[in-house]
Write a structure and sequence with these properties.
This is Nucleotide exchange factor Fes1 domain-containing protein. By secondary structure, the protein is mainly alpha-helical. The chain is built from 23 helices and no strands.
Amino acid sequence: MRISKRLSAMEDPSSKADSPRVLRVLEALKQASHQLQSHPSPNSSELNSSSAINALLELETESDAILSKDPNLSALSQHLSDLKALVDTLHKSHGHHTLKSFLTRRASTHSISRVAASIESEIQAWIDRKSIETLTGVLRDCQKQPFNNEDELINLLTQFEDRVSQGFNRELQDLVLKSKLFSLLESILCNPNSPKRIRERCAFAITELIRFNKDVFVGQVLMGRTIGSLITMASSASIKVLCSLIRSIKSPLVDEIESHGGIPKIINLLDFQDLELRVLAMDCVLEIGYFGRKEAIEAMLREGLIRKLVELQRSELGGALIDMGRNGSSNGGENEEVGVGVGGVEGKRGSRERSFLERHPFASCVARFAVQLEVGEGLRQRERRAFKQEILVRVREACASDAEAATIIAEVLWGSSP
């Protein structure tokens, strides 16, 4: 559809009914302005056929009837007028081969690219403003009464996540703060009467806000109810978000989990029937092991974590990585690296080990936990040594045989420093 046909539907950009149509048009124009920055039509033939310039000039022609009705688009209207003047100047300079014409073309081309960037910025600011207004309006409605169109809200939240994931933008941050969007997201997340998938989508949106600007939004996570709600939900999505938040916020978040009694609830997830949830709970345990301070680790051990890990390692989805070369699961080549850590602290693994862990997610889970404590950020050196000794004692107590205990103890001693 040509831009001019779309423009006919845009009678009032400020009206709620027309906003989606205006949004679609401005998205197309933003793309056109983006293209124009890279290809500002260096010669006459391209200038006459440039779809990007034509699309933007069509909007400039209609600007009095459309843009003037929204004060937030007044700057865009001025940029479009500037673009028209620059294009006219560029038109007039083509066909002349004097030094003055050459310099005029160079200057006009540079100015067109600069104005196109300003147009893109103004359009994105308008889109952000309308998107935040729409999202906050729908979230407020959800607080008052059940929302009938879950798919619409999921789509709005997903679009917001995508926008925030593009990187920091001060104007967007101001919009989020002024609209109190974080509080709305947290309110829906913490409301057990809200649909589960909407609560989960709100949780993902909060995670993106932390990545967007940790300095601003971490405090709201630590002081609010987000963490408790994620643990109470006990879904794969909520635990995935919790793991992501632990990696982002690190020890302070683990402190909050421990101080509010969240450690036992996370440990209990290792007993759930849902395999995906158990695997994610295991990931969460390992993240806490890496970033947790003494109090958090003590709480995990008090809840019988080592016994549960021994049981998981004993299951069909467990196993011992230390035995891979001996039991035929691997060729055990001299140059093949084998490690027992997880995440970003494990180092490189051989392809056979990675494949084995994909099929046996609880393999060597006791030693993997011990490694997290050994190389992590939360413990002092003497605390690491003390906890390793305690883990060895608890392994002996939890194992069903001396052979099983010997294997796990060897992994713990081999996988972490003495």
